[in-house]
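Service request form, structural biology core

Requester: graduate student, group of Dr. S.
Request type: structure prediction, single chain
Budget code: on file
Notes: please return the result as structure tokens.

Sequence provided:
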Amino acid sequence: MYDGTQWFTGSQHGERRLFPILIPPDTEPQTVATARQDPLWLDVTRRIEALIREEPLEPGDRLPTETELARQFRVNRHTVRRAFKHLEAQGGIETRQGRGRFVRLPAILYEIGERPRFSNILSDQGVEPRTELLGLEVETASESLAQALSLRAGSQVVHVERLGFAGENPVSISSHYLPLGRFPNFVDCYKKHNSITETLRECGLADYRRRNTRVTSRLPTARERTILGVPKHVPLIVTRSSNADQRGWPIEFGEARMASDRIELEISPPNGRA
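Core staff response, request fulfilled:
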């Protein structure tokens, strides 16, 4: 009588023989067949996806470490690492340098129009904006910066460097340069408001508009990787722009470096014209 044993043909000492396939007790044969067809890292990938669904883990939540999951799934860390890389390539998770792996947040849509304001753009999408001051100093403008601001060579400018957050997640590093001669009280006013728009308003400039924006990309520097928590292979979106007052005089030149996996740019035509 057939007892369900499965066999395969092999050779031993030059003779072809039948050898039994050893199946663990209480294991269905089709389960073993499936396990042989799918690589182990893919099975771990599915288990991590199930973990995210069942916990549940929300976008922005931190995942267990490679060591923790290797122990939980009884596999080696290299298998877990390959599963993580697969999930990251699919856009389900992200790596933040020095902090671990997280369920990926939806990208922030950043509109570049006549009046781009970081806080307003994030607030309109239901995301809490926050900025952290990285540097505030007066320096001598380079030749290219003086030209961008229509200043004489050697003119003094205020340099404001800020780290922008979407909720608790760093998304951009921005450098802003403003003519000190036009805004002599800018440094003191900024310390009070922590806002460029509010500082300019107190300095007598009620409104300003974007003149132009140039968009490029590059890999992050070591400092940018540390501040933004991005891997070295994830490029940054770099925007260089100038703003002007109502008369068309340049009042600010800025450069923003944005994490390309957290920001999407949308370019709006002037005055909404298509």
